[in-house]
Records
---
Amino acid sequence: ATLLASVGGTTSLLAEVVSVFLTDAPSMLERLRDAARAGDVKMLAATAHAIKGSVGLFTEGEALASARRLEQIARAGDLSTIDAACADLEQAIAGLTGELRHLIQQA
């Protein structure tokens, strides 16, 4: 209900916003993986920030917290925990995308 209210109660707009996220999420995660493999903390921080903005449209839960955590780790330049933080974010995004797909099917 809160998510629907955030788009003015328009089910079709909600479906469109969710569809865009579901389409963009895999490429955002791929950019994240590429940056992690390259050890590019600036790109990691920027990508985590973009993901944080996207998931923030839908949740204040684990996906948002994981994106925020990864962004902070990358900005600190702490490569020792990047892989675990990326894995956490990918898992949280997988959960969120599943919930969003279910939501759209129910609409």
---
Amino acid sequence: MPDDMTRLRWNRKPTPQHPLMGLTILAIEDSRFASEALRLAAMRSGARLRRADCLASARRHLSVYRPAVLLVDLGLPDGCGTELIAEQRDGDIDPPIILAMSGDDAGEARARQAGADGFLAKPLPGLAGFQAAILSHLPEDAHPSGPRPADMSAMEPDALALREDLQRAALALETMGQGSKAAYAAQFVASVARSAEDNGLIEAANRFARSHADGHDVDHAHGDLRRILAARLAETRAL
């Protein structure tokens, strides 16, 4: 059992207002914008959030401490999150609660096959959905007593976090080359677009991913996506 779950039995009991009080969450998420949404949700729920932006960083974190909850993005710069999920399930130590995250609904089946307990679709749910996703896997004595307010508010990260993601996406598209780097660049842009609920950027990212997969009209789709990213960066520069 994760250390946080043991301590929770006598220290920092959860309350209806802070139902995740006392828990430590490790989020493996490459997007700053999505990470900020998770941080706000964790803070308002009473939990502590740490972040790793790739598999290598997550493994370093997990070699030092055991969080109660792992939130694992499936699309990471150095591999797929299912690798880490499977490692945690196959390890000698009792694994934490593991929830996979992705903007691709098809990722849920792969994540559960690897051993994930649950799945969070992107864009991330509001506060109530975030809390419910974690509480559903906690033992009953770790739940708050009494009715819990159904806070449906969305997390609204700082616009600077979105700008950082857009800059990273633009750089990824400039330096992607071929193969896995190109596939990662496509999925990262699409993930950022979904988190920001930017339909125009989502459509452009999907066109680029399709063109790259089938080898047709790649240069046009690539240029179109870069132009839209440049426009979004110009819009956020004034924020």
